Amino acid sequence: MTWKTQPITFSGGLKDDADPLYLAQQMPGAARELTNYEPSIRGGYSRIQGYGKFDTNTVTGSGSITGIAVFGGDVIVQRAGDFYKSGGSGWTKINSDTRSVTTFARSVVYNWGGEQRVMLCDGVNQPAFYNGTTYTLSAVGDYSGIKHISEYKNHFAFAKGNIVYISDPNDEFGVTGATTFNMGDEVTGLKVFRDALIVFGQKSIQRITGKNSTDFAVSTVTANLGCLEPDTIQEVAGDLVFLAPDGLRPFSATEKNEDFEMASISRDIQPLLDNIRDNFSSLCSVVIRSKNQYRLLAYTNGVTSAAHEGVIGVTTPNVGWQWSKIKGFKANCANSGYDSNGNEVVVFANDNGYVYRAEQGSNLDGSNIEAVFATPYLIYDDAELRKTIYKTRLFVDTSGSFSLTLGASFDWGEATLTPADVTVSETQSGVALYNNSGTTYGTTANGGANLVYGADPDPVKEAELTGSGFSHSLRFVTSDTNPAFTMKGMTLQYSVQGRN
To answer: Quick check: 425 and 484 in contact, CB under 8 A?
Structure first.
């Protein structure tokens, strides 16, 4: 009996709503389950990194943290109406006014005249900006209760209800020559995209163009759909992404006709996305720029962090958008930016008073990271031929100890007999890889063992897993605090048995 070998490159991401036969024939490297992995811009699926407390102190006050911003080396948050900042060792109140409790706060970091500032609004109180030392509150009557903000060509745009206000140039709260537009639709977000201020509404999308009050003008992008959730609007990989009634959409300018092309990019995960929208009370989003990554996160008060779900989207030139599910991140608000050293900082918060920093460590604030990847059901050209599998070789990039449980299911999940799961593991006494966030030079790691600089972890892991069926799917499960790793692909050895 002749053994055959099938190579598979892991690519395509989670296909939550795809035809099984299509995946088997056209996308064998995609996933029917992909939880706490992220499609990598370098290929394959990487288990996510963890998160820990940004500051071991809780923010003063009670209730949910309603807004968060990365501002230089600090993080600014809102809780119980007041704003606080921390560099990681205690929270200091920055506002001097008495503010009412709110349900959200939004921010924009900008630089005017060489000074970095952050504008803050919350839909109830007056907006204010902060430059690191001085807190400046608006006294403009119309600006009370501003919900959305954006800096645009050295003006500031504020929105509430149907109205967009654009300030005097270089004066956030200047109204001498200010411009006001009635958009005819409830504004749900403001975002600068290329040379225009995009105004998202509940049922429409419009744009404001021009340089100043003498030529600011409004034009319609579409009157057929809008943005459902204001805090889902993000710029990623040179495009805007937002949540529309039919899912997540891009907002791409086309030079040919100076119009905008729109199409849902979340069809592959629409059942997952619908489930998240139906089962959690609010959504927020964050961008990880170094990974071309968009994360949609969810929040419901009283639900554990472990039960919270979201989605990860990554766009690459050759593959397009790839998706996965993220679990264990409970986020009422999230933000990312750069600290004073140019390092990307990703933070989020919920209702327990702590702020968490993501993209660091290999646990979820002390808990294991549970990750699952299941391949499509594979048929190798013929769905009616019985195949017996014998061995798989996994190509995995690791940076330390590695362990996973490998299982198989057969015949589209209907087979009652399946082989026992096997463990694939490798113990490293401390591998130091250059430019890896988990490596601290001049120290020890992994229980005190010496780091081995320049070590080369074996990229090929072998496992014997025998079973027979017309189709089969492999499922990889990890639950530990080992360093992140990337599943690049695999080869499968099998033989053909016949048609019965």
So the answer is: no
Tallying the residues shown for the chain, one arrives at 500
Q: What's the confidence (pLDDT) of residue 319?
A: 85
AA identity, residue 446: N
Q: How far apart are CA 130 and CA 116, in angstroms?
A: 9
pLDDT digits (tens, 9 = 90+) for 41-60: 999 999 999 999 999 999 99
Rounded Cα–Cα distance for residues 484 and 1 (Å): 39
Greatest alpha-carbon span in the chain: 86
Mean pLDDT, residues 155-161: 98
pLDDT tens, 257-293? 334 555 789 999 999 999 999 999 999 999 999 999 9
Residue 218 bridge partners (DSSP): 208
Long-range contacts of 311-318 (CB under 8 A, 24+ apart): 311/266, 311/269, 311/272, 311/273, 311/276, 312/38, 312/39, 312/48, 313/236, 313/241, 313/248, 313/265, 313/266, 314/13, 314/38, 314/39, 314/40, 314/41, 315/236, 315/237, 315/239, 316/39, 316/41, 316/292
Where do the domains of the chain lie, and which CATH numbers do they carry?
A: 4-47+371-498 (2.60.120), 51-365 (2.130.10.10)
User: Which pTM does this prediction carry?
Assistant: 0.92
Determine the Cα–Cα distance for residues 57 and 354; give it in Å rounded to an integer.
Answer: 7
